[in-house]
Amino acid sequence: MKSFIDPFHTPAHRLPARKLSIAVVGAGYWGPNLARNLQASPVWDLVAICDVNSERARALGTPFADVAVVESLDELLDTFEVDAVAIATPAHAHYGTVMTALRAGKHVLVEEPMADSLKHGLEMVAEAKANGLVLMVDHTHCYSPAVLKMQELVQAGSLGEILFVDSTRINLSLERPEVDVFWDVAPHDLAILDFVLPGGLNPTEVSAFGGDPLGIGRNCVGHLNFRLRNDGTAHLHVNLLSPTKIRQMVIGGSLRTLVWDDLNPKQRLSVFDRSVSLDPSSKSANEKRTSATAYRTGDIWSPALPEREPLGQVIEELEFCIRNKRESRTGWDSALRILAVLEAGARSLSRDGQTSVVASTELADSALAGAEIRNMRAL
Fold it and tell me: What is the distance between the alpha carbons of residues 185 and 300, in angstroms, rounded to a whole number?
């Protein structure tokens, strides 16, 4: 597990030498949330907002009297000296925007998913590493008190051996025509699993099934399946056609089961002290099949969680990582694993649900030679 240093407990955050300067690129859905948190932050100086839609950019910049508005990234980089850019554009635009910022020597915070392909993600990582820059992905959920507690419980062994994960993320939303349901909403839960599970997200194969019942040319309903360690299984259900909004994840262990309900502010986490056990003397597969099953029923409890906005923690960690030259807990390694799973899922969809091998991201740990990445063999 990658260790995380709480930025609020570091001298750098109590007495910063100066505010770091930053610009927000993209004034659509997520840009206003970034701008609001950056403007309120004691460690950041929001200097500009950039969007090709000048009217939208001006509307976002209106509440912030000292924040400039520009229409192009080139104008932004030519006009303002900024330490970092926060990118909240559609995923298909991430590659060009991120690479331009990195080549200009700027640290980058980018909305999830990091890129529209693993190849582009690897090239972005290579550029960041070559220039000694922070490339951080805004996996906001991983900074929430509930998910931090989930990680603590799972990695401390409180649930026992993880047997299954069952995740549901459904609502009514067809606002992003450029991506299907998998690339639109599955990155959220894949990021949580990568953060929570010991060893991160590391399936070797993925199977996916999707549906386009409206005939709009992209999957609006989908199911993603893969194996965990020790033959456990994970199932992600994503749906953009449901009038009922559900954001829930069940992580079942050999000792306890954890339920995360993100839409229940009074009880986001519940831990069920219940389990199924076999005769401990059963060792062979046949003995396990015929052994008596015992059920243990205990208490249900809900951990107390502090209330704080996760996105505020995201921008605090970005500043901390820049000052201390550290990789964030939602850095490029996690983002590449998620891209590899999404691409394997897309290949499975094209093969009517047949399993697809998840590509290795080990190139990101080597010299990341540009030629190697450009010549990656298509799977």
Answer: 30
Tens of pLDDT, residue by residue over 35-50, are: 999 999 999 999 999 9
- How confident is the model over 150-201, as pLDDT tens digits? 999 999 999 999 999 999 999 998 877 778 999 999 999 999 999 999 988 9
- Give the chain's length: 379
- Answer for the pair 352, 202: CB distance below 8 angstroms, yes or no: no
Output DSSP code: residue 359. P
The per-residue b/e assignment along 331-350, b for 16 or more CB within 10 angstroms, e otherwise, is bbbbbbbbbbbbbbbbbbbe
Question: Which DSSP helix (H) or strand (E) runs through 110?
Answer: strand 107-111
Question: At a CB cut-off of 8 Å and minimum separation 6, what does 311 contact?
Answer: 33, 34, 37, 138, 140, 143
Sheet containing strand 205-211, strands side by side: 293-301, 269-278, 257-261, 241-253, 162-172, 233-239, 221-227, 205-211, 356-357
At which residue do the structure tokens 């906001």 appear? 140
pTM given for the model: 0.87
